[in-house]
Amino acid sequence: MSNEVQLSDSTLKADLLYGGGTKTGDVRENTLRITGGADVTVTYAIGGSTEAGAASDNKVTLEGDGTKLTADMLIGGWAADGAVSGNTVTLSGGTAAADRLYGGGSGSGDAVNNTVSVTGGTVETKTEGSEYAAVLAGGYSQTGHVKGNLVDISGGSFTDVGVYGGKTDEGDAVENKVHIDSGKEIELWSVVGGDTVSGTALGNVVTIEGDGTSLDANEIGGGWSTDGEASWNNVTLRGAVTAGLVYGGGGRSGDAVDNAVYVSGAVINEKTDTSITPKGLAGGFSETGDVSSNFVSITEGSSVKTDVYGGRSKEGTVAGNGVEISGADTVVTASAIVGGWSESGSVLDNDVTISGGNVTGGFDS
Q: Does position 345 have pLDDT exceeding 80, yes or no?
């Protein structure tokens, strides 16, 4: 099972490039390594691939100055109808131009504990000029659940890339993480811990921290479910962030419950050149669902220049949400600082607590 394919100082154009592959069996511990200035153009670059089995502990590594991989899909381990677990993609140098980059991906199985690690190099979309950003995800499944997947960014640069700890169309997104400690400025289309269309987003986490780390993104969210519930997701910000919207948990029609945003010693500015709406910080939000028991904490000398909402919804009930601002050196400049806000729904028992800092603007509903 432990196959390895290595390309170094070479040029390759092909349809498929696998470390190991099978039609019906499992694939384990296969490696695809691209290094030493190799120039590779393929449709699929995959560490280990299977149609009917499971894919586990497969790897793709891209390293070395001048190395370039161009692919529709770059995946550590892929299973069309099986589970994927423990697969990794590591980028430490070179350029990965791909429309989809997954640590582990599946059509119908669960994606569990897969990882994408970027320590250097460049990640960019393959299809230049596309209206859609490239998708980089620790784990992906079309119909299965995604759980415990990770994207870890400690370096590198990005062009038109959205980052997701775990992403699924129909399954639940549970306990996936994105960790960014880049030590420099990076720009991403979006950053979401766990993303699902129809399932539940539960316990997903985004952390942005580190000296010199500065992130520019349209949106940053702990967990998102388009039509399901988002609960117990959170975002922690300890670096510099410019974003249109930051939310602990959110969605379109489902409820947002018990989500949080923690801002500690961070510099947060509102991104104005984005079509993302609404803008600001929100513990939880939903377009039409109910929003309850969400929280935003701003403390320890943070500087925030955007609106702040404990919870917000366009049509749903907003209840029991809160904003807390503390710390002698904390500065918040906003046109609205709101415990809970709904355009047409009921608003009940929300609060704002200010126990220190310099706060300009805001009201408590």
A: yes
